[in-house]
Input
Amino acid sequence: MNNYIWLIPLFPLIGFLVNGLGRRFLSKTITGVFSSLMILASFIVACLTFSAVRAPGFTPQTIHLFDFISAGSLQIPFDFYVDQLTVLFLLIITGVGFLIHLYSTAYMHGEHPEGFARYFAYLNLFVFMMLLLVMGANYVVMFVGWEGVGLCSYLLIGFWFRNNEFNNAAVKAFVMNRIGDLGFLIGLFLMIKTFGSLTFTEVFARADTASAGVVTAITLLLFIGATGKSAQIPLYTWLPDAMAGPTPVSALIHAATMVTAGVYMIARSNILYTLAPATGTVIAVIGVATAVFAASIALKQNDIKKVLAYSTVSQLGYMFLGLGVGAYTGAVFHVMTHAFFKALLFLGAGSVIHAMGGEQDMRKMGGLKSKMGITYWTFLIACLAIAGFPPLSGFFSKDEILAHAFGANTLYWVAGVAGAAMTAFYMFRALGMTFHGKFRGSDEQQAHVHESPAAMTIPLVLLAILAIAGGWIGIPALYGGSHPLGAFLAPVFAGSTRLAGAHTLPESTEWILVAVTTLVVVILAIWAWRKFAAYRDKGQENTGLAKVLEHKWYGDEIYQALVGKPLQAFSGWLSRDVEKYGVDGVVNGVGRFIGWSSSKLRLVQTGQVGFYIFGMVVGMVILLLVSFLG
Output
């Protein structure tokens, strides 16, 4: 494994360099095929690595590449660390990433060849940076990938940079992530001061030597970084605006890469977080609040991509709820299943948008089922999976988190079930408005509607299969399974399990929880489908709470009022008053003083010899006095 593990990030890096440097002369066919093959090659090597990790007697491996930072006693090598958690994320990133690349070859076919190559160069770089993030053996290498995916998100969200709204969305994502990253960076400095190292194995081995307060401070600071990268309250508003980029980009950001970085970081740091129960409570509260809050917004969104965007924020909330209550396996399990059904949802939405000539408003769709059969059935499977219908993937992963949440605090479970109910409602609302009823678009759009090409539908079918069966590797004992994924990840979380102890619920309680959750989900899904399958746009404006939800609880407006306008006023004061009368005043004042003083001083030059002799005498007297007094 040590001989080939470095190939996994190398292939996407080669794809980025070739497409970036050759964008002016490579054809779109060569660009698309080459970029996709690079990710496929990484996936194949990841599968070989997975096989090695599964072998009996495997122990985590650190692969040294080169010395990176050396400052006194602090030594930070550029190393890769491979264990069960690493390889699972490698499979998700490269597997789903390859399907998104393949899909993009058809979705972006109308782009200019140079823009097409630029798009795939960014996409390959995105995958490379995410692979660095999950493969790093220390927090510095992780942070390099962490910042790299932030850069790539900026480039891809603002890919169509001639549209200023898209540029603003890219800047918003970049700035909000920098806010979170500042907390992450301060946490790393505190970690260096406390442990003298940033290498995972060394930090975790010394974790119990630090005081509880210091560990709590470190974990909270790292969590601030996670709230930005994984779009949790209050740093969530950038993610819905990330829909400005091409739809496959949304699938990559939301499903397999960037937004799961925060979950990975906390799962990797599980020892630290287990030693900081107060931080765990904060994470659980913010996670469940985000899950419910974002789901409520999705109820009244009409842009199909915005529905899915707020759905992502909500599902990430469930992952953080799992992390907060110590259900690390459940959180990672939900990362995996979410990657399957959320990538499927976004690519299905992209197929619809492609057929509708760029239209994203569900009020102008309807009746697409008859003309887009593959897209419809795969989208339906994704809706069932994300809603938690048994036995699809989302059912097993979400119920595992909710069971742990119930064991920690009943209120967490109640809020989680409420979020699940809203998830079922807004997803089947989207399904009904998009695919059922009568077509509500223009005649030109209706004539253009057709099923997407094979390069787009094949990834849909493969992801649909994964959305159905992906959860079967996590079937718990309650249903007669052995939870193979839990057994696979057990060595990663063994230390936390030993520290926190195992928490189990009576089997009868688990059955009641499952029954209640499933019943609620089914009722809400049927209600939404019956209500919106025959949807007609009556042009009525929302009022009351519906209007508040449509305007996203006025989150952006609140940010603008509390943060944006005060900062703009302050910067205006700096540029208008401080710069004009302060900086410019000082600089110009020096110039004016020199001009005035020189105009007075030149009057000393009279041209009279007697005056000059008098001046010499005065000067000599002054020198004598100074010498005498000294």
